[in-house]
Design brief:
13 helices; 5-stranded mixed β-sheet; disordered C terminus; 365 residues; elongated; 9-stranded mixed β-sheet
């Protein structure tokens, strides 16, 4: 979360709280959410505790501001409170039954939103509900000209379609996304799938076909012991930590997404329409975050959605304005490709993971 904003809340917590009493509509919205969610519910960005009472028993408040939490502790004695960051939630994987986040993610940079929502996906159990309220518009962590709080708070704002892509990419199924005045309200369910691990300045974006059920439950793409992706990626020098997409992004600049978010026992169960719809989402993701290159793992999705005669290697079409490398599946079911061969493909994708390198790789030798 933006540190300048946290400092503003720490300095002016009482002023902020005094100016924002909870109205009947807000209280009713919180109670309705609480009635639909399992416990525990976490108020992600609880501030002075203004919604903790309406969220009912079994609620935990989280905020990045110590001063806000002090107000919440005085207002709601006995409610567990924790200081934490939306990008590193201090909860056990799958421990949370519902997440209420009213205008807290507005202080997260849009390019950091996939990582923040991936954290929400991690701590929520499958089927848990998320209520997310952000500002509508087109703003990337900037001061608001009409901000009534001193200290230089910074805000992000979203267009509906862009927000939808990011929430879906984070592994949620959207029940409702509506605009209301200057806000967007999202109600979503944590799906049995993987969250994208993507962000700015990626040197390579790895795109799988779709998560296996095994991988979705493990929380890691290509997680099955027989899958050769991680051994090949380590041998190729792409990553340094086995089966850890968070570290791959943070330490190595390697992002991970899937062409289709729906988890299945086998990719053969996916339809051409799912591949085509997924390719449009991934193309928008690439055009937004601009990785140096994209490596698609598995031929079937690209053949179904874009070029049925495609072969492994650099693709002339590219994706989202970035170079695209297509390689065979790393699944243990793909006996035609050895670990050495898969490593060689990832080495080639890494070699071309810059505009000049990929352009050179695509030229006939």
């Amino acid at each position: 979360m933006d540190r300048t904003t946290v400092e503003a809340y720490d300095t002016h917590a009482e002023r902020w709280a005094a100016a924002r009493p909870v109205g009947p509509a807000e209280a009713g919205d919180a109670r309705d959410f609480a009635a639909s969610a399992e416990r525990p519910i976490v108020d992600l960005g609880c501030g002075s505790g203004r919604h903790l009472g309406d969220l009912g028993p079994g609620v935990v408040g989280l905020d990045a501001s110590a001063a806000m939490l002090a107000l919440a502790a005085a207002e709601r004695r006995g409610v567990p409170l924790v200081r934490g960051d939306l990008l590193a939630l201090p909860f056990t994987t799958g421990a949370v039954g519902g997440a209420w986040a009213k205008q807290s993610y507005v202080h997260v940079a849009r390019t950091a939103m996939p990582a923040a929502l991936a954290e929400a996906h991690r701590v929520l159990r499958v089927g848990a509900r998320l209520r997310l309220v952000v500002f509508s518009g087109d703003r990337e962590l900037e001061p608001h000209p009409d901000d009534d709080l001193p200290g230089g708070r910074r805000f992000s704002a979203w267009e509906p379609d862009h927000l939808r892509d990011v929430v879906v990419g984070a592994g949620f199924e959207i029940d409702e996304l509506v605009g209301e005045a200057h806000r967007l309200l999202v109600t979503a369910v944590r799906a049995r799938t993987l969250a994208d691990h993507v962000g700015p300045a990626m040197r390579l974006l790895i795109c799988g076909l779709n998560p296996s059920v095994y991988a979705a439950d493990a929380g890691v793409g290509f997680a099955r012991p027989g899958n050769r992706f991680w051994p090949a990626a380590i041998r190729a020098g792409l990553v340094h930590t086995d089966r850890d997409p968070v570290r791959a992004l943070a330490d190595d600049g390697i992002g991970m997404t899937d062409l289709v978010k729906r988890a299945t026992p086998r990719a053969a169960e996916l339809s051409r329409a799912e591949y085509e719809d997924g390719l449009r989402r991934v193309e928008r993701l690439v055009a937004w975050l601009r990785p140096a290159a994209v490596c698609m793992v598995g031929l079937a999705g690209w053949r179904a959605a874009a070029d049925r005669s495609a072969v492994a290697g650099w693709q002339e079409r590219g994706l989202g304005g970035r170079p695209l490398y297509l390689m065979p599946s790393t699944s243990g079911l793909n006996a035609h490709s050895s670990l050495d061969a898969l490593t060689a493909h990832l080495l080639e994708a890494a070699r071309g993971s810059s505009i000049d390198g990929a352009a050179s790789a695509r030229r006939p030798q």
